[in-house]
Amino acid sequence: MTRHLPTLAAAALALLPAAPLAAAELDARYEEMGRMQVTLDGETTELIIPYDRESDRPYAEQTRIMDSYLTINSVGRKLAETGMLIRPMVQVTLQRQDGEMRLLSAEMFDNQGFDAPLAMGMDGGEGELVSFSLEEGHLEARVEGEFLRLESYMKEPQVAEGATPVPVTIDWTAEIAPLD
């Protein structure tokens, strides 16, 4: 099924209204399988959710952890004028808990690097999944809340000194492969 994912994604994206992401075309290594819109403190950034043809890796997928917990991970990336993927990078992880899909975490990796992301959920600010739909591989979701800047994320995550909550809304759609 993974090999058919790019075809399904292209067909589904053809049905979406056109939205300008950047003047550049996505590098041939990648194919767009979804879109993400992040509104951070009133400023909106358009991201794509790519499928990496070279490594056969989707940036949005569903998995089961310990055969019990349905988890959906989606990663949006900014498209540079060169067609390559750059920061910011936003990752959102959802998990079915007690029969209901919930926000596990969201991180925005910006110019502060991987050790100091803006985060919501487990280690960061408060947030919640306010809408979610997954039907026949078509994912639509919205998260609202506040990001907090973290430090020592790769070792022992903690809220950075002086960090203040930043309001954020994350909306995304993607075509994801079914579970095997």
Structure description:
- By secondary structure, this protein is mainly beta.
- It has 1 helix and 12 strands; from the N terminus they run αββββββββββββ.
- Strands 1, 2, 3, 4, 5, 6, 7, 8, 9, 10, 11 and 12 form a 12-stranded antiparallel β-sheet that branches.
- Strand 7 (100-109) and strand 8 form a beta hairpin.
- The longest helix has 10 residues, at 5-14.
- The model is unreliable at 1-22 (pLDDT under 50).
| Tally of helical runs | 1
- The end-to-end distance, rounded to whole angstroms, is 8 Å
Report the principal-axis shape.
globular
Low-confidence stretches: 1-22
Return the average pLDDT rounded to an integer: 88
The gist of it:
The protein has 180 residues and is mostly beta strands. The protein has one helix at residues 5-14, and strands spanning 30-40, 43-52, 57-58, 60-65, 69-79, 85-97, 100-109, 118-121, 127-135, 138-151, 158-159, 166-175.
List keywords for this structure.
180 residues; 1 helix; globular
